[in-house]
Amino acid sequence: MPLKVLDGRCAIVTGASSGIGQAVAVALAQAGARVAVNHSSGGESAARAQKVVDDIARDGGTAMAVQADVSREDEVAQLYAQTEAAFGPLDILVNNAGIEQPSPIEQMTLDQWRRVIDVNLTGQFLCAREAARHFLAREAPEGERRARGTMIFMSSVHEVIPWAFQANYAASKGGINLLMRSLAQELAPRRIRVNSIAPGAIRTPINHEAWDTPEALADLLKLIPYGRIGEPDDIGRAAVWLASDDSDYVTGTTLFVDGGMTLYPEFRGAG
Ligand code: BGC
């Protein structure tokens, strides 16, 4: 059997019990990585994460579920400790966990603002810092076109497209852009690659209201020049490439996977 591109690598995917995180975990495992499927809490999210793990195992892959709230320093440290104890030194972080709490600005509570920034931005900082510590604790591979470790931040088209009623979310994603690029600049000399994926509208639970009726989907498609909604595995495939040595010369980049949503489609024939 030919070697898979991520054979022998160890990965953490945060927020992997559903949606994009789930698809990324499955895709990394199919590419040969051993994957920690992080979920935020017990109950339903734990059950969903376990199902992702079971599906991966049924497919011949290796994964385990690990609970941690990425906005909490102690829980993030635990996430890494448990992952490395089971799967060995970390090679790949996919900083994916994210939430939305929409509100008109005049009604947005400080709590809604803080929670979104805590999970989407501070959570990515905490997980990236921990990944950097773990990557730096080991030797850089010599003379190979291979990084010491790779990080992928899950951003959004809303790192560039302003989003009314989701100022907290858009601010978190705008923050991810410069967090990612600053870390890429800082860590490149130490052979750590740092990139983002900016998904457009992907068919997941977070945005079901935008696609689960024919009318909503028709409205959404007006924003997508390529004429279809994205599927979670569109992001999974992009993540495999960015995590693998195939993208060894790529760092500090945001890969938009959005069917052209950032191309200002409303300007076609207008303006
Ligand atoms: C959001 C989705 C939204 C998409 C495009 C994503 O970042 O999480 O709710 O559909 O951007 O607007």
TrEMBL record:
Q: Indicate what this protein is called per its UniProt record.
A: Sugar dehydrogenase
Question: Per its UniProt entry, which superkingdom is the organism in?
Answer: Bacteria
* SMART domains listed in its UniProt record: PKS_KR (SM00822)
List the Gene Ontology MF annotations in alphabetical order. oxidoreductase activity, acting on the CH-OH group of donors, NAD or NADP as acceptor
**What Gene3D superfamilies does this protein's entry cite?**
NAD(P)-binding Rossmann-like Domain (3.40.50.720)
Every Ketoreductase domain range: 9-205
Pfam families, sorted: adh_short_C2
Family to which this protein belongs: Belongs to the short-chain dehydrogenases/reductases (SDR) family.
NCBIfam families associated with the record: PRK07231.1, PRK12826.1-2
* Originating organism: Bordetella genomosp. 5
